[in-house]
Amino acid sequence: MENNLSQSNVNTPWHFITPLLFLASTMLLMLMALYFIESGQLGKPAVLIGLFGPAIMAVLFSYIGGGWHQARQLLKQYIVYRVSLGYYAIALLLMPTLIYITMLFTDFTGLAYYENWFRSVSMGQLIFIPLISIGEELGWRGYLQPLFRQKYSLAVASTFVGCLWALWHITGYYFNTGVVEGLPFYLFFIWVVGASLIMGYLYEKTQSVLLAVIFHSSVNFSLNIFLINPEFSGSVLPFSILTLLVCCIGLAFVRYHAKTR
Question: pTM of the prediction?
Answer without folding.
Answer: 0.91
